[in-house]
Amino acid sequence: MKFNLRFLFIALFICTISIAQNKGTISGVLTDKETNNEVLPFANVLIKGTNISANTDIDGKYSLNVNPGNYVIIFSFVGYESVEKPVTVKAGETLTVNQVLSSGGYTLKDVVVKSTANKEKETALLLEQKNAVVIKQSIGAQEMSRKGVSDVEEGLTKITGISKVGSRGLFVRGLEDRYNNLLINELAAPSNNPFSKIVPLDLFPTNIVGVIDVYKTFNPNIYGDFAGGTFNIQTSKASKSVTKINLGFGYTTGNSLKDFLLSSDADTAAGFFGFNGKDRELPSFLGPNASKASFTNDQALSSVGGDKGFSVSKSKSPLNSSLNLLHSEKFDLSNDRSFSYLLSINYDNNYAIREGVDRTLDLQTTGSRYVNNFVITDYRFKTTTSALLGLNYTANRFKLAFNTLYIKTTMNEIKDQFGQAGGTAIQNTFIRTNELDKSDYLNLQLLGEYNLTEDKNQTLKAGVSYANTKYGQPDRKFFSGQKTGDEINTTYGANNFLRQYLAVDGNSFVSAMAEYNLKFGKDGKQNKLTVGYNGNSSMMESSYRFVSSRGNAFTSNINNINDHIIADLQANNGTSFEENSNSTWQVKLAETANAGYTNLLLKFGEKYELNAGVRLESTTKETKYRGLGSFDSAFNISKYDNFYILPSLNLKYLMNENSNLRFAASKTYTKPVIMESFPITYQNADGTSVQGNPLLKNSDNYNVDLKYELFPTAKEMFAVGAFAKYLDNPIERTFVSNATTGTVTTFLNSDNATLYGVEAEFLFGLNRISEDLSAFSFGLNGTLMQTKVNVSPTYNSIDENGIITTNNSIETHKGSRDLQGASNWLVNSDLKYEFNLGKDWTNTMSLVYGVFGKRIYAVGTNGQDHTYELPVSQLDLVWSSKISEHFDVKFTADNLLNPERKLEFGNEGTIKVAEQSLIANSYKKGVGFSLKLGYTF
């Protein structure tokens, strides 16, 4: 038996050697055309029609042993074009076949392009995250589509540590919108709304966005103005010729097909598409400068005639709708050159009804009582129109891109408040606000990249952009009185009828960047030196004017009150209008930021990477404003200039080919949102107001991050990290008292704040549990965080005449407290199921969940406790189905839990709340169901 076994082993060994000697070898290196022909690890190499395959290693190398013969090799990588190449293998020989893969539609001799995709796919972005030297996360069009995301803002909430908070934008690691920054194709971009730090990202539909990069740590080539996150939107580029149209409809419980109020000028075809507002412009007879001028009777009639008045239209709210058109072409030119263009046009609208309570408190030492206690019904009709035109030219050593981005928004709002107002005993006060918010945003960009040397070790890239923004609330009008049934008893005087005209125009915003990169070291690509410049300059001007009325008391139907106003004016019975602006109506703002930076990337052996640099950034701010007094007074001028030295350090340790350990440390700063420091007071109909604080300082931020990453497969990832931040002069929202309502929202600098926490994220296939679950994958990310603010014992205030006084702190909680806006925890997760219903009918179903913890909405002052924002759980279901080559459909059910969204008064202050309910504000959004049909030509 031993002899027979030995003989068998020897025979098998000889046969194996014999077969091996008759085989041939195919080997080579795969490189990435999109990254200047750097090696492409983890790509797939397959012998067509067989099970013989290999993956490229970390250096992009592969090797296959095959019998002699003729074969076709398939080179592929998720997010890139698959390429087929015929080869002939001879016995005992090694055939070298190197291949370049790209995301473009190239046609080469002996190469057949079989399929086209792009780097927007999840696996390609995971690989990019793995290989990046700096700590960043990205989300692409594919992942956003799978998760039912229709806009960028919602997509970013799927990233660790990011949550969306109503209309207040994105919170990153508990830090509000003011701590974020936005780049579009690496160029600075202004906000379209002075109440927001950056362009609200829900205005960017996903089909004009290829990839969104999220930097939660600082690098010298991005602006120093951030502590939460910097978002870089890479606009879509044409990778192939395609024409696609999408048509969508949505129904929301409690919102759609319900009684709905709409301003008369919006209840038109022009209003439906977001082109209303012309009838609401400031009357031309008032001229370009504010005054105290009285209207003639004819002028008064003209100002309320047609669709310009106070009446509203009542109808049923229709279904929400959307329309998206995408067309792109790519042309292959001679000498490995190409030209492409992409045109995307998008429109969507949304009808929403918000019902709930809206309350404010007074400051009585015997116990705080409601000063306002309203039941509110808020009707909102929102439209967004956007367009992107992208032109791209690519040659062997040169790339040129020109982008035009246009975004137009309108929100028509009718807000009814009914109940107690001003602390009086009257319980039937009615206030109606009729408001149009509109913005126009145009951004033109020219970007270029040139390889200075044939080996592409020296590159130069540059870009410039020009943006123009216009934001307005034309003829924001409200009236108030006592309501009985459908009628209101009111009077023209006592500010019961008031009209506001707010315009904030960004006359110009210019941004530019230039960067030189030198690769050196082993193979000319191991190390890199970067030297660059980027900066921006902006000019902005605001106008805030008022029109009031005089006259007698009257009773009228609420929805048709304008008919009564016109009748009174025609009767010439003493009813009149007049401009009632003051000398503070106009503010001018000019800002600049200019920076030079350098960065050095060094690779030590096979394991260590060091990325260190410094940014020298100079900022200027000049505000021109008038105090109370004459309209002809000279402008007061306030200047606030800074020079920052911002170092950055990133260390990366490659523990093995599937895992990294990272460390980052940096210094940054934060500027306030424009309206937070603007010297105006924004008035609301119920007596509350928002007051800018021109004495706000920029905060200085010191940041440290430590992160471990593991990538078990191309589709899986596990990461855990710790972070800490120290903020000097953090900016926070607070409520302070005034002479009438005690409800002025303003902003202040605290002394300092410390944040620290941990983040964890994983994405894995459930086939690890059972092969029966191979079609499922699960992702989860969460953040735990602690914050501590040290309260300054004093603060400075400034009046409308520019006089500064130093006061003792008015904060209720002396010493220390949590940071305003920061949640101690938040969680996002999603479960994905992929299945086929036919040969070409592919489906992806995702269940997506997110929740954040309780946080301070406004800091408590004058004995009152903080106002808190309570946790909100969001659960969405998405089913994406590609029925055939031409048809696809997506069904989304969002906000399935439909939680009540609440602000709550705390009751741990020195003055207690003497009311049964602590709810300050509440409403429900409703459960949304939408269906989007797509056809690709």
Walkthrough of the structure:
By secondary structure, this protein is mostly beta strands. Helix content is 7%, strand content 55%. The strands form nine sheets. The chain has a 22-stranded antiparallel barrel. The chain starts with a helix and ends with a strand. The relative contact order is 0.10. The model is unreliable at 1-5, 7-21 and 104-120 (pLDDT under 50).
Topology:
Layout: H1 2-22, E1 24-32, E2 38-39, E3 44-47, E4 53-55, E5 61-66, E6 69-76, E7 82-89, E8 94-96, E9 99-101, E10 112-115, H2 122-131, E11 137-140, H3 141-146, H4 152-156, E12 162-164, E13 170-172, E14 181-184, E15 187-188, E16 209-215, E17 230-235, E18 242-252, E19 259-263, H5 269-272, H6 297-304, E20 312-316, E21 320-333, E22 337-361, E23 370-394, E24 398-420, E25 429-451, E26 458-484, E27 487-491, E28 497-520, E29 527-550, E30 553-557, H7 561-571, E31 576-579, E32 586-604, E33 608-625, E34 636-639, E35 642-656, E36 659-670, H8 674-677, E37 681-683, E38 689-691, E39 699-710, E40 717-728, E41 731-736, E42 744-749, E43 752-765, E44 776-790, E45 794-798, E46 804-808, E47 816-817, E48 825-836, E49 842-852, E50 855-858, E51 867-869, E52 873-882, E53 887-894, E54 901-905, E55 919-923, E56 928-936
Parallel strand pairs: 1-8, 1-9, 14-17, 38-42
Antiparallel strand pairs: 1-2, 1-5, 3-4, 3-6, 6-7, 7-10, 11-16, 12-13, 14-15, 16-17, 18-21, 18-56, 19-20, 21-22, 22-23, 23-24, 24-25, 25-26, 26-27, 26-28, 27-30, 28-29, 29-31, 29-32, 32-33, 33-34, 33-35, 35-36, 36-39, 37-38, 39-40, 40-43, 41-42, 43-44, 44-47, 44-48, 45-46, 48-49, 49-52, 50-51, ...
Helix pairs in contact: 6-7
